[in-house]
Specification:
CATH topology: Rossmann fold
Number of helices: 11
CATH architecture: 3-Layer(aba) Sandwich
Radius of gyration: 22 Å
Shape: globular
Number of domains: 1
Oligomer: single chain
CATH class: Alpha Beta
Strand content: 15-25%
C-alpha cells in the first residue's frame, strides 16, 4: 500500500452541501499526497454518490485510493486515461457513465497537471572552463530541447487536457439535460509567476479563460453548466515537498506550505456556496499568519489563516494617441 493520507482529516460534515449526492469525476486524482487525492477524499467522505478517480501513470496510488474509499463505503472507481490523447479520453466515456448509473458526472474537477523540473526562460547555459565551442553547442542544444519538451508536456496536460475534458463532459451534460458544475484547478503562479516554470505559469493562465469560453459556446444551454476556477498557493504535494523548507520558493506568498487537508477544507467551503454565487468566478486562496493568541510558542508548524479572494482581471482598453490621430482609412 502506498496510501499515506490522514483519512479522518478529510471529513467535513458541516460542508457536505456542495457534494452530497453528486456524481464526481476528478482528473489527476491518483497521486498519493496530491491535490486531486485530497479532493477525492473530501468529496467521497462527505456524501458524494460516486467518485471517479482518474489517473494516467499513477495507477498504483490510484487503485490504493479507490480501495480506501471503498473501505469507507464510498462508490469509487478507477479511470485510467491520458487526457492529452483524445481517443484515450473518448474511450472512458461509456465506462464512466455506466459506473455512475447511466448519467454523466455532474461535478467535474479538472485537476490534471505537471510542472517543469526547473529552467530559466530566455537564459542559456554558462560556459564551462576548458570546454570547446562545439561541445558547448551540443550541451546547450540538448538542454534547450529537454527543457522545451518538459514545457510542451506541461502545456498539453493542462490546456489540451482541460479543454478536452470540458468538451466531453459538458456535451454529455447538455445531451442528458443535466445540471453540471466544473471546477478548474489553476495556480497563483498564473497571475504572479515564479521563475523556472514558464510552461506551468502559462498553462495555468490559460485555464482562467475556460469558464468564459465555455459559457459563450454553450449559448442557450449555458444555464445547464456552472463553473469556477481556483488559484491555489503552495500546497505540500509530491511536486512541492522538496521546497517545503525553502522560504525563497514559497515565502513571498505564505508563512508555510499548506497541507492537502487544509486546502481541501477551504475548497469544500467554497464548493458549498450557491452556484449562482460562484458561477464564472476566479477564486484565489490567500494564506497569512494567524493572529497572535498570547499563548506559549506552539509545537509544530505555524498557524495560518486562509481567506478566499475573488479575482477580477480588468481589461483596460485605450486608443493609442498617434494611431487615433491618423487612422488608416480604406474605401
Amino acid at each position: 500500500m502506498t496510501y499515506t493520507a490522514p483519512t479522518d482529516r478529510f471529513r467535513f460534515d458541516a460542508l457536505r452541501g456542495g457534494v452530497e449526492g453528486k456524481r464526481v469525476l476528478i482528473t489527476g486524482a491518483g497521486k498519493d499526497g496530491g491535490i486531486g487525492q485530497a479532493m477525492a477524499l473530501s468529496t467521497g467522505l462527505n456524501g458524494a454518490d460516486s467518485v471517479g478517480i482518474h489517473f494516467h501513470r499513477s495507477y498504483e496510488d490510484g487503485f490504493d485510493l479507490v480501495d480506501r474509499l471503498r473501505d469507507e463505503g464510498v462508490h469509487a472507481f478507477p479511470v485510467q486515461a491520458d487526457v492529452t490523447n483524445l481517443r484515450d479520453l473518448w474511450a472512458i466515456r461509456s465506462y464512466v457513465i455506466d459506473q455512475m448509473g447511466g448519467l454523466p458526472p455532474n461535478l467535474v474537477i479538472c485537476n490534471s497537471g505537471l510542472t517543469e523540473s526547473g529552467y530559466n526562460l530566455g537564459r542559456t547555459l554558462r560556459q564551462v572552463e576548458g570546454e570547446s565551442t562545439s561541445l558547448r553547442r551540443a550541451r546547450v542544444r540538448q538542454h534547450f530541447i529537454d527543457n522545451l519538451e518538459q514545457s510542451r508536456l506541461v502545456l498539453d496536460t493542462k490546456v489540451d487536457g482541460f479543454l478536452a475534458s470540458t468538451h466531453l463532459w459538458a456535451g454529455e451534460a447538455v445531451h442528458a439535460g443535466e445540471q453540471a458544475q466544473f471546477v478548474y484547478v489553476s495556480s497563483r503562479q498564473a497571475v504572479d509567476p515564479g521563475p523556472a516554470v514558464p510552461g506551468y505559469a502559462l498553462s495555468n493562465w490559460a485555464v482562467l479563460q475556460l469558464p468564459k469560453v465555455l459559457k459563450v459556446n454553450l449559448g442557450r444551454s449555458a444555464d445547464l453548466v456552472s463553473c469556477f476556477t481556483l488559484l491555489l498557493p503552495f500546497v505540500r504535494t509530491g511536486m512541492t515537498n522538496e521546497y517545503a523548507g525553502n522560504e525563497r520558493v514559497f515565502g513571498r506568498w505564505q508563512p508555510r506550505m499548506l497541507e492537502p487537508c487544509e486546502m481541501a477544507e477551504a475548497f469544500m467551503a467554497l464548493l458549498a456556496r450557491p452556484t449562482d454565487e460562484t458561477d464564472g468566478a476566479m477564486y484565489e486562496l490567500m494564506v497569512s499568519a494567524a493572529a497572535e493568541t498570547g499563548q506559549a510558542d506552539p509545537v509544530g508548524p505555524p498557524a495560518v489563516e486562509l481567506i478566499w479572494h475573488r479575482l477580477a482581471l480588468n481589461l483596460d482598453e485605450q486608443p493609442v494617441d498617434w494611431s487615433a490621430a491618423e487612422p488608416l482609412r480604406f474605401a
